Fold this sequence. Notes:
Elements: E1 2-6, H1 15-30, E2 34-37, H2 43-54, E3 59-64, H3 65-68, E4 79-83, H4 86-96, E5 99-102, H5 107-121, E6 128-132, H6 139-150, H7 156-159, E7 162-165, H8 168-177, E8 180-182, E9 185-187
Parallel strand pairs: 1-2, 1-5, 2-3, 3-4, 5-6, 6-7
Antiparallel strand pairs: 8-9
Helix pairs in contact: 1-2
Amino acid sequence: MNICVFAGSSFGAKPMYKAAAESLGRELARRGLGVVYGGATVGLMGTLADAALDEGGRVIGVIPQALADIEISHQGLTELVVVQSMHERRAHMSDLSDGFIVLPGGIGSLEEAFEVLTWSQLGIHSKAIGLLNVDGFYDGLETFLDHLVREAFVKPMHRKILLSDADPCRLVDQVLAAEITVAGKWIDP
């Protein structure tokens, strides 16, 4: 099994973000779960990959050619896949993965998370998606998603697709055990 992790290409403002990326990388490797991520050495992305590799894990990076030099592609991975576009990157990462975890990050990480969340809502895949809510990083987002439910733009069953926890170990447990929805119908894993 592989878990795709979306993460920031910077470290963010708090040291706890880096610590969470390290903890998640180690946890995934300890459980024998491969890591699929954006392929860079920078920021939380590089921290995650290095921690998983240090723990003996498998790490597959997927990076577009245009970013390979800018973000400094990681040359020590189990596998590095260079693709032509961001669209191809996200599709390939999804194809390689059995679930998704989102570390703190910026607009790119949110875009990736919302794309796979939308794909789940539409029944394109039935893979679990979880936010690693480090120090309340995603509290505002979760509040906004609840607002979308109250305003009848998101169905409650679709809101439940997005899991969340502050602890990497518990979040991995949730992702692995998640009930998932396909085209609006709940199914057991």
